[in-house]
Amino acid sequence: MAAPITFTLDLEDHRPDESFPLRYPTVMRRVLEFLAERNITGTIFVVGEVAQAEPDLIREVAAHGHEIGLHAWRHVPVTSLDEETFRSETAKGKALLEDVTGHPVEGYRAPTFSLVPASVWAVDVLGELGFTYSSSVLPAPNPLFGFPGAPRHPFMWPNGLAELPTPLAGLGPLNVPYLGGTYFRILPWPLVALARRFVTSSPVPWTYVHPYDFDTEERYWPVPDAGRMAPLLWVNRKRMFAKLDRLMAKGAGAPLRERLDEARRGGVFNPAEARGEQR
Ligand SMILES: [Zn+2]
Q1: pTM for the whole thing?
Q2: Roughly what angle, to the nearest 10 degrees, separates helices 83-101 and 55-63?
Q3: Count of domains forming the chain
Q4: Residue 136 lies in a domain
Q5: Which of 7, 16, 54, 84 has its C-alpha lying 20 to 30 A from 74's C-alpha?
Q6: CA neighbours closer than 13 Å in the CB half-sphere of residue 252
C-alpha cells in the first residue's frame, strides 16, 4: 500500500520589502483552518525572523498540533553563508522556536533546498546543534539547488543526522518534486496524480507548500531568484486548497518527526547508516 503523504509548509515572509502588505499571517490562519477541518497535522518549518515578528502565530500553529521545525533564521540559501554565521543563526532560530512553543525543535529545512555538495558542511553543524533530522536535499540535478547522487529515500548522514529528501518523480528527463511548491500548483491534476503514483513508493512522501501558494490577493512582483519563471509563482493559486484536498483525500501522513520514528522501526535505514557509518 502506498504510504500516506505528509503535509509540510515553509512559513516565510515572501514580500520583497515592508512596503508590501503583510499577508502570511492571514493566509497561514486559513491554512490552519483547512487542515483542522480535515484532522491533518503536519510539519511547519518556520523562518526565525518570522517567529520573532509573529510569535503568537507560531504558538497558534503549535497549538493546532503541528510539529514546528526551523526554516533558517533568514530565508537565504545555506550556500550564501559561512559556517560560523550558519551556526550562530541556526542556533538562534532553534532556541527562539523552542522558547516560543515550549517544545524541542528537531527538524531543519534549508531555504530553497540549498543543502548541496558545496554546503554539505552544514550537516555537522546541524548535528552539533541537536537536530534529529533534515529535510533539505533535492537529490537530483536541478537548475536552482540540487544534490545529484544523494539517495532518493530517507538516509543517514555520517554523523547520524537523518535526511528526508524531497520526493521526486521523473516525467521525461527531469526529476523534480512534483508534489510540492510551484510544480504542484501549476501542473494539471492528472499529472500530479501520475507523479503521486511514483513518489508514494517512497516510504516517507511529503508535499511542501508556502502561504503565498494559496494567496490570491498578493500583488505581483518579479521575484529575482525565479528569473523569467517569476510569473509562474502566481499561477493557479486559487486552485491550491482544492488540489491539496485531492492529494490528501485518502488521509494524510503524520508530522515528519513521527514518520521518521516509523521509518526507523520499519528498517528503512540500513544498519550501517543507523550506526552513522558511511557507505
Ligand atoms: Zn522557503
Answers
A1: 0.94
A2: 60
A3: 1
A4: yes
A5: 7
A6: 26
